[in-house]
Design a protein that fits this description.
Blueprint: E1 4-6, H1 7-18, H2 24-32, E2 46-48, H3 49-57, H4 62-71, H5 86-90, H6 105-114, H7 118-121
Length: about 120
Amino acid sequence: MTELLTIKEASEWATDYLGKSVTPSNIAYLIQYGRVRKIGENGSTQIALNDLMNYYKSFNGAREVIYKERLGDDLNWALSFDQYKEAETTKHVHRLHPYKGKFIPQLVEYFLDNHTDKFKTA
């Protein structure tokens, strides 16, 4: 039988599992964007522990290995911004609506900070 967790319980489990703060809004984000399945209706939202475990296991170093196998060793993993918490990459406006083409603020900062010529910085 699958163990079901409330959003609050899922955030507490993920915080313990990852060793960093995972808020209930982080879990709600995973549900909203289809990263984990929502179980229940009308305020009784739950998620399966197995779904949550599989989601977070895919991030603990495994993503880099999988992507390098597919795309080659010259992949610049620093541009994955995998080291940032989800709350840091969404900042204050990125949850207003689900727009697939938006860029995380760190990517824009990377290109502006590291790829501007002397005229632009003067």
